[in-house]
Structures are given as structure tokens and as C-alpha cells.
Amino acid sequence: MYKLYSMQRSGNSYKVRLALAVLNTPYEAIEIDILRGESRTPDFLAKNPSGQVPLLEVAEGRHLAESNAILWYVAIGTPLAPESRIERAEALQWMFFEQHALEPNIGAAYFWLSLVKGGRDLQTHALEDWMERGYAALQVMENHLKGHAFFAAEQFTVADIALYGYTHVADRCDFDLATFPSIRAWLKRVEQTPGFVSMDWQPGAGAEPQARLVAGV
């Protein structure tokens, strides 16, 4: 069974939990609070020298870091990974976009404005850039979604999970999605996916999702 080291309120960690939930993949959840320095201990750094979550233990002593690499690993061989070469590349294209355009801006704003006490005052100098670049990323997504239901292969894939992680909390860190109707409709489609769980959901802490994208995986 996988061991997943993650932080409940982290968008990057949530992406992995969401994928595992949709796929009905069992795992042991280990909470790591990065705000308390729990990812900087010698024990954790021995597993992941970058000191970041999420981190997936895929076998005894073998760990995989970086949320989108983990997403791709768990998606291979399932409906979350497109079958054709070009569609897989398109999914990866959007996952790279998420990491260089969305996460550094909306993700950073969410972290500092929603999770860190006094973070707004500490990052006043960066907020304007985050907002400008974050809105630019949202516009790219909006333009794509005007003609597509999902981001790759015309179906729900890991690309959607990667982008959903921080887009769905954008309104918690000053971003207004009112002028992005296609994004708002896409968010609802993602939330209607069989097996979907919210960021607050924890394995064993409540009712299990009734339907899964893949049963018994």
C-alpha cells in the first residue's frame, strides 16, 4: 500500500489525494504540517531532500516527490491518463502550465493569504505580481475551456486534477472568478466526477464516495 505524506490544506497535496480517491486506490495518509517545520526534520529530509509535500512512498524505501510526477505515476494504466501519444503530451502540456503559470501565482497567493498568519503583510510586495500573472493564467484556461469540456483528450484526466488543485481555491486569495464562466462551469464538472472528494475530506473520516471512476483499483 502507498504511504502518502501530505498536508491537508496544501493544493499540491490535495491533487494527489483527489486522484487516489477517484481511482479508489488505498493508501496510508500521513499528515505533514509544513507550517510547523515537519517537512524539515532529518527523518523527512532523508525521504525527500527538497523538504516538500506531497511525497509518495511507492515501495519500501522508494519515494516519489513533485505532485504532478506523482499524479502521472498513479494515473498510468487508468482512464486518468489518455491513451494516445498526442493526448498524453497534451495532458502533460497542461500539467507543466499548471506548475509554471498557475501554482507559482495562485498557489503562492493561497499559501500566504489563506494559510500563513500575517502572510498578507509579509508578502505585500509580491501580491501585485501574483494577481497579474494569476489572472493571465486563468485567462489562458478560460480561452481553452470555451471550446472544450476538459483540458486533454476531451475527458477528465490528470491534467484537470492538476489544474483544479489551486483554481478551486482562487477565490480564497483575492481572485474573482466572476468573469471566467467557462472555468466556473469546468469546476462544477470536475466536482461531479465519480469519486470526487473535497480538499477537507480525509480517508476514513466520513462517508466514502459512492461512485468511482475506476472500481476496485
Give the secondary structure arrangement, pairings included.
Layout: E1 2-6, H1 11-22, E2 27-31, H2 42-47, E3 55-59, E4 62-65, H3 67-75, H4 85-115, H5 119-122, H6 124-145, H7 158-167, H8 181-191
Helix pairs in contact: 1-3, 1-7, 4-6, 4-7, 6-8
Q: Could you explain the architecture of this structure?
A:
With 217 residues, this protein is α+β, with helices and mostly antiparallel strands. 48% of the residues lie in helices and 9% in strands. The chain has a 4-stranded mixed beta sheet with strand order 2-1-3-4. A hairpin with a 2-residue loop joins strand 3 and strand 4 (62-65). The longest helix is centred in the middle third of the chain and has 31 residues, at 85-115. The radius of gyration is 17 Å and the shape is globular. The relative contact order is 0.16.
Quick structural gist:
This protein has 217 residues and is α+β, with helices and mostly antiparallel strands. The chain is built from eight helices and four strands; from the N terminus they run βαβαββαααααα.
